[in-house]
Every structure is written in C-alpha cells, then in structure tokens.
Amino acid sequence: MHADTYRHRGLRRTLVEELRRKGIRDERVLTALATVPRHLFFEPAFQQHAYQDKAFPIGQGQTISQPYTVAYQTELLHLRPTDRVLEIGTGSGYQCAVLLQLTPEVFSIEYNQVLFESTRRRLAAFNLRAHLYCGDGSMGLPAQAPFDKILVTAGSPTIPRTLLRQLRVGGALVIPVGDENTQRMMRVVRESEDEFVREEFEEFRFVPLLGQAGWQK
C-alpha cells in the first residue's frame, strides 16, 4: 500500500523538471515535491494521474491541488526551518506533507469531518506528524497563534482579519482571493502590529473557503 518505487521517483523527478520550466525557482520547495510520494494521496484506481501537473477530485467536493499550485504557494511563503505554519484546508494532506519537508511545526485545519478523519489516518500511516484540527479554518487557530506563516488552500471572498491577527510581526499570509470562479493569489506581510503590506500575483481557481470569514454554505 505504501510502495514508492523507482518508477514513482522517476515520475516525480520529471514532474519537478516541469515545475522548474514553469518558473518555480526555490530548490528547497522543488526538493520537497520530489520527496513526497504524491501517488499515495490518491485512491489506488487513480494513482496513474498522480504525477500529471493537474488537480484531481478527492471526494467531498474537494480536490488535491495541482503540483504547480502547491509549489507556487509554498514558494511564496519563503519558509524557514524554524517557522510555525498554519495551513487552512488540510484536504488530502498532500500540501501539508510538502510543508513538513520544510519545517516540523505545521498546524492544519480541515472544515470537512469526513476528509479530516481519512487524512488524519493517512498522515499517521506515513509517520507525518502535523498538528491536525477539524473546524472552521477561516477563523484560524487563535489558541495556537501567533504563526510565522499562514497558507490558505481554498478561495476566499476577502482576506479574513481573523487570520491577519494571528500572524506574528514579520510573518506572511498567502491566500487566493476573488469570486467563486477565479481568485488572485495574495501575500500579506505583517510589518507591525497595525501595518500590513499586500502583494498580488497570478490568478488561480480553488474550491471555496467555507466558514464564518469565508463563503457561507
């Protein structure tokens, strides 16, 4: 069940070269994607799709993100090995596994109870030790704040103030913001207690961020 063969590793190397051609430059991020066996986050019947650079449905109306998107968001975080990271939207656990290659302190929150339970079991089986929670990710984890970095893996109508308040000064939030069809990737850096600097990047399409500070069901 947990086989990671020479063929799989070769497919990952090919995928990483494709991501490099598409503009991903952070070698630590590329190494992380080369390390994590993405096929193990798929049902066995669909594992042949794992090393194509595309998103794929994982049930419950959710997807495992396109590898380019995972690499792009992770690169924007500028992660350091000492960073405490909050991920909003655990999903399949793939992005979380990539983050864990870069820093050991990853907190991740998933809105959907069914996905949370299956992903919690999967990450435990792979001996990946993130701090996992089930709840409203749009509200963050105030009891565990502040965080050095916050990554949102679902599209939000706005930048939630709840998340900004949970950033450490000098920390950064990466989040896709827009309507339900397309979102613009944003990075918000907390310069001081009351000052935030926002940058805008490429357009993407994510599943909606559900919750009190996101899209209402």
The number of distinct β-strands equals 9
Q: Round the mean pLDDT to the nearest integer and report it.
A: 95
User: In angstroms, what separates the terminal alpha carbons?
Assistant: 36 Å
Any idea what the radius of gyration is?
Answer: 16 Å
> Structural class of the helix and strand makeup?
alpha/beta
Number of distinct helices: 6
* Low-pLDDT runs: none
Strand arrangement in the largest pleated sheet: 5-4-3-6-7-8-9
H/E topology pattern: HHEEHEHEHEEHEEE
Query: What is the overall silhouette?
Result: globular
For the sheet with most strands, the description reads: 7 strands, mixed
Strand content: 25-35%
In helices, the fraction of residues equals 25-40%
How would you describe this structure to a colleague?
This protein is α/β, with parallel strands linked by helices and about 220 residues long. It has helices spanning about 5-20, 25-35, 65-75, 95-100, 115-125, 160-165; strands at about 55-60, 60-65, 85-90, 105-110, 130-135, 145-150, 165-180, 185-190, 195-205. The protein has a seven-stranded mixed sheet with strand order 5-4-3-6-7-8-9. A two-stranded antiparallel ribbon has the order 1-2. A hairpin with a 5-residue loop joins strand 8 (about 185-190) and strand 9 (about 195-205). Helix 1 (about 5-20) runs antiparallel to helix 2. The model has no long low-confidence stretch (mean pLDDT about 95). Its EC number is 2.1.1.77. Keywords: Cytoplasm, Methyltransferase, S-adenosyl-L-methionine, Transferase. One of its GO terms (molecular function) is protein-L-isoaspartate (D-aspartate) O-methyltransferase activity.
